[in-house]
Amino acid sequence: MYAQMVKSTGTMKTREEMDERERAFQDRIDAGEKIEPQDWMPEGYRKTLIRQIGQHAHSEIVGQLPEGNWITRAPTLERKAILLAKVQDEAGHGLYLYCAAETLGVSRDEMTEKLHDGKMKYSSIFNYPTLTWADIGAVGWLVDGAAIMNQVALQRTSYGPYSRAMVRICKEESFHQRQGYSIMMKMASGTPEQKRMAQDALDRLWYPSLMMFGPSDKDSVHSAQSMAWKIKVSTNDELRQKFVDQTVPQAEYLGLTVPDENLKWNEEKGGYDFSEPDWQEFHDVLAGNGPCNADRMAARRTAWEDGAWYRDGLVAHANKRAAQRMAAE
Amino acid sequence: MSSEWPLWEVFIRGQHGLNHRHVGSLHAPDAEMAIRHARDVYTRRNEGVSIWVVPSNQITASVPSEKGPMFDPSKSKIYRHPTFYDIPDEVGHM
Ligand SMILES: [Fe+2]
Ligand SMILES: [Fe+2]
Ligand SMILES: [Fe+2]
């Protein structure tokens, strides 16, 4: 989801093919033990985690852009303060995750550089524009809603620092979804035009939100190893189904229509049947051809480059103060 | 003449998967001995699965008298809490 197509390194081994260390490692994971930075781990586990946590971190940071777009245009001072607080939280989420990845022997600057060079990805969802205020409601409701679904599951992931970052993030996410839904409630019960805006936001963001969980399990080539290592704990389709089941009644309450003619309650499976998103579009967006990919990357690079003098200045100041302290001693 | 052992802050992970938490401090001549002492002082009743030690003088703390300006600004930001939003029960847990 926030990490959608994470390649896992190393072919899946059977127990017989594992050496003694690998077997002991797998046993710990199967027993539900957390792996900590000082523990031995297979190289593939480490690399896959760096990709997944890094991608997750990048998503938190890039994810600030579509919402940041509306901070200065929020309809009231209260909504502005709320949106600002939410975007600020996302910056913190990025920080927790970069720190978790850094325990695996990669630096934050390295990951940032890889993002800017197009060698690391972020969630496809943030390549869609936020055209109206209703989109800010829909993002909180649907995008954070989907993120929560994924992150709640990831609290049980096998890598200790990642799991603990998820616990912290999940505590903070609840307000994100609720403020989004509260915007939707206002819009959907407002003037006919406001209600139309709410419906339009749902129409445009529904399928991109379903894409957040990644490709269908039958096409998800990297999942098996990640599941065995408990880097992932639920499959893409499981989470997507849960998300639909949770969200449809919420749309109904708003009096909005989920843009899917095939949406139908299936008594037998105890969940909704629904249409899959357009996977071609998903792959196009991931490949860099979504409506906002170029904008998002340009904004990130500009922020990084324009901030360089400030980062360097603080280091120079710290060095100067350290030298003064040394001289005084 | 003997020189005084420096002070160390001790952090214990109580259970697999949890954060290390500060439990107290002790004196020791170096990091290795600090870990040994921490094991003997703070985990005699099976309190931990992992220990961190940090030289106390490496910790920078906020100033207690500046508690107000430090932490008060977050008090008014009640919208950071999920309970600020009235969400109807009908839509399920959110
Ligand atoms: Fe977040
Ligand atoms: Fe969020
Ligand atoms: Fe997130």
From TrEMBL, chain A:
GO molecular function, one term: phenylacetyl-CoA 1,2-epoxidase activity
One record GO biological process: phenylacetate catabolic process
A family per Pfam: PaaA_PaaC
GO cellular component: cytosol
Family annotation (InterPro entries): Aromatic_CoA_ox/epox, Ferritin-like, Ferritin-like_SF, PaaA, PaaA_PaaC
NCBIfam families: PA_CoA_Oxy1
Protein's recorded name: 1,2-phenylacetyl-CoA epoxidase subunit A
Species per Swiss-Prot/TrEMBL record: Oceaniradius stylonematis
From TrEMBL, chain B:
Cited InterPro entries: PaaB, PaaB_sf
Pfam families: PaaB
Superkingdom in the source lineage: Bacteria
NCBIfam families xref list: PA_CoA_Oxy2
Protein name: 1,2-phenylacetyl-CoA epoxidase subunit B
Natural source organism: Oceaniradius stylonematis
